[in-house]
């Protein structure tokens, strides 16, 4: 529960129950902290005092509402941070986070969770994953799906030169996504040794430590003055967005998934750059079936971004570690899991 800037508390609350006939209740073997949770934690984004935190989740179906038809008890399921019916026109075009009936899913830093619009939101795995696979399944519910959307939105193609701005969990999984999509050169922008190491493990071919205009100049040097085919913006600040746009070649694409804070764009500047922009809250639901298959096939292991594991009742330390960049991403285990 978040009560104020850097005031996160672990509290006992009533178990969730079925509210709407389209709901499901799932038990969570693990949960986690997202980099985007740090915005309200730091007091940058407004929030009501006593906000239940967490929006990444996977787990076992415990109960379903009477209108739920595609799920049954005991199945292992993964969902997204926005519930969607998966049938409206926007969902059918693959943008479930713009569903006409979307509703945010919150309170996932807990042992159990109520998921609205369960039929459209939750994807059941063919088999129940083993313990080793569960962290990767959890990553699919947001950071892996978001990194994949960043690469998809940036139009990453086989043989492409790709730049990834941001070395948090989303940026690192953007590197992994670009590699899976066949990028030939992947330039990760990072100043942290542990993150650089994981970026290289995920497929980065180059590391750039400079930021801002110096970072752009370094990208230009590495690409013979041309710029990158595709750039993934995974931070959400004015500096990171401009760094992404300026690093892109004319005709190239930026996929931006960092939640914007204070970002403004100059229309005339964009007009003469010939750069495509596509981004927003990632439609994770679109990609879940494909990503689940990639995890089961052993082709991706996004759970490697979890470099700190704590009991759920030590959640405050998990937030501090991420805020101080001592951890990339914190995995939390509810009591008994």
How is the secondary structure organized here?
Blueprint: E1 2-4, E2 7-8, E3 24-27, E4 31-32, H1 38-41, E5 58-64, E6 76-78, E7 82-83, H2 89-92, E8 103-104, E9 112-115, H3 118-121, E10 123-124, H4 134-140, H5 143-153, E11 161-165, H6 169-180, E12 185-189, H7 193-202, E13 206-208, H8 212-222, E14 228-233, H9 238-246, E15 248-256, H10 267-273, E16 276-279, H11 284-296, E17 308-311, H12 315-323, E18 330-333
Parallel strand pairs: 11-12, 11-14, 12-13, 14-15, 15-16, 17-18
Antiparallel strand pairs: 1-2, 3-5, 3-9, 4-18, 5-6, 6-10, 7-8
Report the major sheet.
6 strands, parallel
The total count of strands amounts to 18
The side-by-side strand order for the widest beta sheet comes to 13-12-11-14-15-16
The helix/strand series, from N terminus to C terminus, equals EEEEHEEEHEEHEHHEHEHEHEHEHEHEHE
Helix content: 25-40%
* Arithmetic mean of pLDDT: 97
Low-confidence stretches: none
Oligomer: single chain
Distance between the termini: 20 Å
The percentage of residues in β strands lies in 15-25%
What class do helices, strands and sheet pairing give? alpha/beta
């Amino acid at each position: 529960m978040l009560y104020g800037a850097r005031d996160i508390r672990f509290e006992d609350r009533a178990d969730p129950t079925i509210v709407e006939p389209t709901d499901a209740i799932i038990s969570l073997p693990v949960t986690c902290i997202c980099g985007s949770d740090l915005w309200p934690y730091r007091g940058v984004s407004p929030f009501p005092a006593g906000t239940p935190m967490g929006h990444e989740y996977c787990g076992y179906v415990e109960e379903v509402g009477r209108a739920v038809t595609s799920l049954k008890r005991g199945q292992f399921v993964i969902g997204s941070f926005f519930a969607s019916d998966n049938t409206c026109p926007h969902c059918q075009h693959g943008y479930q986070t713009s569903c006409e009936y979307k509703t945010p899913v919150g309170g996932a830093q807990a042992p159990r969770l109520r998921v609205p619009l369960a039929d459209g939101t939750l994807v059941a795995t063919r088999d129940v994953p083993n313990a080793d696979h569960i962290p990767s399944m959890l990553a699919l519910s947001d950071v892996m799906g978001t990194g994949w959307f960043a690469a998809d939105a940036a139009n990453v193609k086989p043989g492409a030169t790709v730049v990834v701005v941001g070395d948090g969990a989303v940026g690192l999984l953007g590197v992994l996504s670009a590699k899976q999509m066949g990028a030939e050169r992947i330039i990760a922008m990072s100043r942290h040794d542990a993150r650089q190491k994981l970026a290289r493990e995920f497929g980065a071919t180059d590391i750039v430590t400079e930021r801002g205009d110096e970072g752009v100049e370094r990208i230009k040097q590495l690409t013979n003055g041309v710029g990158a085919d595709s750039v993934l913006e995974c931070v959400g600040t004015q500096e990171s967005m401009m760094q992404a746009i300026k690093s892109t070649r004319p005709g190239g694409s930026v996929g931006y998934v960092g939640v914007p804070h204070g970002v403004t764009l100059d229309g005339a500047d964009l007009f003469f750059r010939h750069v495509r922009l596509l981004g927003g809250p990632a439609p994770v639901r679109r990609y879940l079936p494909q990503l689940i298959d990639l995890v089961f096939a052993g082709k991706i292991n996004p759970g490697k971004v979890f470099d700190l594991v704590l009991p759920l009742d030590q959640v405050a330390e998990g937030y501090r570690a991420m805020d101080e960049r001592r951890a990339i991403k914190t995995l939390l285990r509810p009591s008994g899991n």
